[in-house]
Amino acid sequence: MDATSQRLLMCRPTYFAVDYAINPWMDPTAPVDPALAIRQWEQLRQTYLDLGHTVEEITPVPGLPDMVFAANGGTVIDGKAMAVQFRDPQRADEAPAYRAWFEDAGFEMYDPKHVNEGEGDVLLAGDHLLAGTGFRTAHASHAQLQEVFGYPVITMQLVDPRFYHLDTALTVLDERTVAYLPEAFSPGSQAVLRRLFPDAVHATMADAEVLGLNAVSDGRHVVLPAQATDLAAKLRDRGYETIGVDLSELRKAGGGPKCCTLRLRQGKASK
Ligand code: ARG
Predict the structure, then answer these.
(1) Strand, helix or coil for residue 216
(2) Is 255 in the pocket of ligand 1 (CB under 6 A)?
(3) Which DSSP helix (H) or strand (E) runs through 154?
(4) I need a surface site. Which of 19, 130, 180, 249 has the fewest CB within 10 A?
(5) Residue by residue, what is the 3-state secondary structure of 107-128?
């Protein structure tokens, strides 16, 4: 399997905290170790560098504890960047910060007309854009995604509040294959996934409950939470190399490796 070198955007968790609860993972009364969160994030960043990826960083903004979850900052495909609109007011101010970064970096900008939480809910799988809805990204935004990017958009109905973003329930492994937790999707969406990806890897609830599906694949190496051991074994059986990382502190906010990582897709060639 060929690995593609990727250009990634990350945000250092300088101001990370769990101060509010906007998903079932977040408990503002539970202790968080901010220094450990930073060390774990640095390890994730170093993992990408060791794999030969390029990591860019956006400056963290005080008072925005979830800004570390760069996947929610936008959707960037073929040199076009669609900015985001968050469902929750606590995250609203992240949107203009990420928008300004994309603009400075020279991407062609598009503004969202509806709630859209970026690559948390929008995943490019081969020639299809899989778009989640049910908790965060509005169904109405799927039509705009199709108009902006020109890929057929497939709506994925999420049904379990613990798997509130598509990237907590499904990982794109390469152009042809995905891994997912079937129970996180409506019956109709499960049927669509079986039709589109007959060879997909099915994850167990135990893997999903440690956010194992919140993984980043370059087509050959899959970076995933170290605790997702069954999923890692299944991926190795399929010929992928797995790299486990521990993001226990960020998981207290409901995030894993993929949440911390936004893919910047420059143009067709580096798709
Ligand atoms: N606390 C954040 C939220 O609930 C976590 C976001 C995780 N990001 C992701 N791409 N799933 O919005």
Answers:
(1) strand
(2) yes
(3) strand 153-157
(4) 19
(5) CEEECCCCCECHHHCEEEECCE
